């Protein structure tokens, strides 16, 4: 939502690049710690978060009622959309 409302701040930042770097780092750490069985859960969790980011960037297309229903921050929408 914030990225959609303030694109001037985020246009020079690449969330996807940072996210990809984070995922690779954590998977490498899980491997070193012998916890590779945690990797699928971690990847699924990151995928769901990324889906949330995409939906947040496009929340205006969703409509106010649907956005309020699926958001984690209902207070944000009391003044938005």
Note down, in words, how this protein is organized:
By secondary structure, this protein is mainly α. It has one domain. The chain is 69% helix and 0% strand. The chain is built from 6 helices and no strands. It has helices at residues 2-5, 7-10, 15-32, 39-57, 59-62, 64-70. It is elongated. It starts with a helix and ends in an 11-residue tail after the last helix. The mean pLDDT is 83.
- The span between the termini is 10 Å
Name the beta content range. Answer: under 5%
What is the count of DSSP helices, taking H or I runs of 4+ residues? 6
Class by alpha and beta content: mainly alpha
Taken in chain order, the helices and strands follow as HHHHHH
Largest sheet: none
Rough outline: elongated
Estimate the mean pLDDT confidence: 83
Tally of discrete structural domains: 1
Task: Please provide a brief summary of the model.
The protein is mainly alpha-helical.
Give the helices and strands, then pairings:
Layout lengths: L1 H4 L1 H4 L4 H18 L6 H19 L1 H4 L1 H7 L11
List keywords for this structure.
69% helix, 81 residues, mainly alpha, single chain
